[in-house]
Structure formats: structure tokens, C-alpha cells
Amino acid sequence: MKITYNWLKEFVEFKHSPSELSKLLTMAGLETTPLLPPPLQGGGSEGVDGDHVIEVDLTPNRSDCHSVIGIAREVSALTGGKFKYPDISVKESDGDINSLISVAVESPQLCPRYTARIIRDVRVKPSPSWLEKKVIAVGLRPINNIVDITNYILWEMGQPLHAFDYDSIKGKKIIVRNAHRNESLTTLDEKKHNLSEDSLVIADSERAVALAGVMGGGNSGVTQATRDILLESAYFNPISIRRTSRRHGIFTDSSYRFERGVDNEGVVAALDRAANLMAELSEGKVVKGRIDCYPKKISYPQVDLRISRTNKILGISLSREQILNILNRLMFTIKIVDDDRIKVNVPSFRKDIEREIDLIEEVARLHGYEKILKTIPSSKVSVSASTMSQSFEKEIRNILTSLGLTEVINYSFTDEKYFDAINTPQDDPLRKIMKLRNPLSQNWSVMRTTLLPGIINTAVFNINRGIYDVGIFEIGKVFIPHKNLTTEGTETTENKNQLAVKSEVLPIERMMLGGAITEKSEKKIWEKGERDFYYLKGLVESFLGRLNIHDIEFFPINLSYIHPQKGACVKINKEDIGYLGELNPAVAEGFDLKEKLYVFELSLDKIITKAVTEKKYTHLPKYPSIYRDIAIVLDNHIKSEDVYKIIRETDNLILKEINLFDYYEGRQIPVGKKSLAYSLVYRTDERTLTEEDINPIHEKVIANLRDKLGAVLR
To answer: pLDDT band for position 383 (50/70/90)?
Structure first.
């Protein structure tokens, strides 16, 4: 928005220099930039009468300042200078406008107010020098006296106008309506536009003659031959103008102001001032009377403002009289309700004032932002203690990180296709899912019932980018529908277990721990740079051991997504807590995974009830340990866990540790047999053990293994 210094002084009295005025407006929230005087047409460098141009950068809500009058009101409020409104008196001639033109507004919701005047016997000619200079100052090109006056009033009063050649109006009737289907209009820029039925047009009895609020039509524009003018001044719905402007790609000073909202009560004043200027500068006559279609008066809010609230928000101590003075300077009408509350009538030109906080901002602007002390708001900060579950999760993260895994986080949403990708049977409980009513996309359409797909995808993502040494874990919730859950219209031939849950029913949330490791590793293990099922099993055992959980058992498992011979069910005190194993090759192929991937998924809700978080101090052994090794041959189907149990049950006083250190099948071992070697550690805190203490127990261990498992010493 450009204004000139001298033009502004026509409407408000002040003594500030252009630079001082610019600074004053900027401090009040209207960013300004003083510019050099614009040159006259023809290349002169002396500027327009030595005037100064000030460019004001306005936010979209300050539509009242898109005019010289609007800025003058602001300057008056800031400086206390007297504001004077431009002369809007009209010298009318004979005749009656109602006998010359009729107006029908068929779309009052898009055009709440439409006014018009007729000026007869005009002479279209160049504008006088003073008018040309003002048009040039704001960056426009002078055209002729009629068009220049409409531009002048637009910049002076903020009201767009349009001048029609009266003789081109068919049927002497103006109709404000929506465009007809397949209707077109060639605008003043000689471009043809196919109109949408949502667009508002100004039409005569036969065709559209203007795109309302945006641009006039070439079929009704003012030319050198024009003798009679039909002058339009209206208030159009801002949203309608915005849509029309963007739909047709036409952006004008007129549409810019209509989009932001002009002063509907200033429509007539702009019309009268422009009509009088046209008669004066074109030697024409203003026909008596005006058309004013304003069926439903637009009302503006009354806003209550509390003095105490204003001071509290701004952190200042203004009296009621000081606040009243500020609002009066802004031309608000005020009624005092009580000592603390006043009622403010918002003027029609301030469309940005809707709530109490808007008025408080006005008080801050006029009082001066620089007078408000910069203070940091004080508040009480309370630090809540972590819950047992939060502390437990933190401990788990620390343990798994120390074991070489990296935490990942996946969405709680997933795609139904992943249940097919991991070969889940149709009757598997995992397929009983919670569908989202309004998912972001198909990829996130259901709540997950397992962490496995997300973990696999994360591993694949890293492997595809050349990171083959993957070791990850995730702590997250899965969502299981209630058994007695109410469902609605979800049974399909593809999957009868899918559940679309009513909004008032929430699922059961279970906290799970999942993870995965790849076969390849940067560190060599057992003299090979590969990890396997036993490495994963040991990792899970180490994790549970760090939580002081030792009654761990592993049993064969049959899951569609786990390798048939390389998987295990994990139990603690006979209770199932999850699984681990190599990903089924068929599933790996479905994920385009060429590397072996070992995965696990455990119930944290169950683990937390079995973990012993209290740690007890035990001193280092005072006496030396005695080591004995045994190597036994036994049937292939016997698990090492069975051997471990028998050894442990033999003695639990001086037998402190049992470690498997060798497994062998080969030529020296009969077919169907295997060799397991264990290291047994004996120790007591009372004294140094002797052979006489150890031999009876060691022999009993061998005897029990022979009697119960058929084991033979190797």
C-alpha cells in the first residue's frame, strides 16, 4: 500500500517529517518504508511536486488501512491530530435515476449492497495535472479522467468503483447474479474467460458486462466516445471475490481490497465523491438520486472490554480514562457499564475487531509497545516422579543398548497386507484388528497387533542402504480388541476377523518388546563374522538375566513367520512371554530380504511382574573356586536345558555355576547321538573346598545323568 506524505496531510493535521511519520507507524504495528519521490512521466527526475511516498506493509486483517483515509485515521489516533473526512457533497441536476436504470440483486448473499449513480454529458479526456500526479505516485498509469477518478477514489477511500458506458447497457437494467452455465466474458484486458456458475457477475438484460469486484467487461468499458456514465459502488462477499479472482487468474487492486473486506457503510460516500469529481472534471451532470440496494443491513459486534483484564494481559497499569481515550482516538463508540467493564461498538471499517483480546491489542498499539516492560512469565514448574513402568522401560533401554542394540520407533498404525506378508493364518488372533475410520492412507489403516512387520521393515530399510550389521529393538504398544467388543458391518469374505470398532469402545493396550539382528556382524563371534539363532537366544537370556530373571525355559514353537527348526517359545516360571527365532525364509522373500534375520517379541507387561529390580550387594568370593569338566554323549533329541536341570537339582549349595562350552557331532560319536561338554564351578563362602567335598557330589551328578538321561561319559 503506497501513500504520499502530502496526500495524507489533506486529511489529518500533523507536524512529523516523512521519516518520523514512517517510524511512528512502524512502532504502531504498520511496517513502513520511506521511498524516494516518484519521477514524472517523461523521465523527469524532480519527482511529483517534491512529495514523498511511504510504502506500508499491511497484514491481511487490516483492510481498513488500504487507503489514504485509513492511514490518516491511524495517524490521527497516534499523533492526536485532527482528522477531516473528504468532501462527499454532490451537486445533482434534473432527472430521476430510477427512470434511467433499474437494479436487481439476485444473489444478495454474494452482494449484500449495490449502489449506482448516473453522470450524463461527460467528456472523456486527459486528467488534470494534480490527479495524474497522484495516480502516478501510487504506481499507476493515467488513462483518462473517468478511469483515473475511479483509481483515485480506490486509493483515497479504499472503495473500488467501476464506470460503465451507460449506452452499452442493454435494456437499461443491471442484474447482479451468478454466471450462467457456459457463459463467457471478455474482460478489459481483452482476455476471454469461461465463467463458472459460482462466479458473481454484473449483467444487463442480455449478457454479463463485468466480473463482479474483479474486472469490467470490454463490452461496456468507457471509451473516448462515451457520453453517459453508470457508476457502480458495491460491497461484495470477500470469499466469493477471492475464489473468482483465483479461478480466472485475475488479480487487480479492486479484487485485492474486496477480498480483504471493504467498508460496507462507506460505499455511498465513495460513490458520491467520485460522481461529483466526474461531473466537475468532465463537464458532466450528476442525475438526481442514487440506487442503493441494501436489503439486510450488516451488523457489527459489541465487544465487552475489562480494564483489569487489559492491564493483566499487557502487564501495565492504565486507568479507565486512559483506555477510553485510546479507544475514542480510534473512533470506537463506547458505553461505560461499570467501573471495570465498558462496551465497545466496533465501527464498520474495523473488520478485524471481533473479541476482547483484539481491543486489548489496540490499546497496546496506541499506548506503545516500547512502554510495555519485557518480563518473563512466572510459573510453577512441578517435576513429577517417574512411574514404576517408566523407570522399568528406561532400565530396559539401558540394558538392550549395552547389549549392542539400537532403539527404533515405528508407527502404531500398519497395513492389513502385512498379515499376509508374514503368512498369518486367517484364524490367527493377530488378524483381529482395530480399523481406523479416517486413516491418513491405506498404509496406516489399522492398529498393529504385533511389532514384527515394523521391525522387519526397519531392518530391510537399513540393509537396502548398505547397513548389513543391524541390531535393533522397539518398545511399543499393540492394540487388541476386547473379546465382547461390539462390531459393525465388517464381516467380509476375505477376512471375517476384521473388526471396525465403535468410537466409544477402546482396545486393550499391551506393551511389547521386539527386536531383530542380522546374520552378518562387524565383530567376529565364534571365529566367524556371523550371528545365529544361538546368539539371539543368548542375547535374550542376557537381557532377562540383567533383570534378575533366571527361571527361563525355551520350548519348540510353531509359528508361520518363524523358521520351523530355528525358533523357540520363551517361558518364565512356565508362563509364555513371547518367542524368538530365525525369520521364515518364505516371509523373508516376501519382504525382498536376502539376508537371514533373527527376530524376537516379548511381553513387557509380563516381564515387569517377574523382574527383580531391587539389587542386593554380595561380597566377592573369599575362597577359591574348583573347576570340573564333564563331557557326555546322549541322544540327539535331549535338550541341553534338561541336562542343566538335572545337574542343578543334584546340588544347590556348593555347585555355583554350570556352563556349556562345547557341542559336537561327528565321526567319533555314534549316529543319533551328540556330545555336550560342561564346566562345573564349585565354591563355598565358608572355607576352601577339598577333593573329599567335591568328589561325592560330582559322582552323583554323573550318576543322575546316566540314570535319567542315559548319558555316557565320553
So the answer is: confident
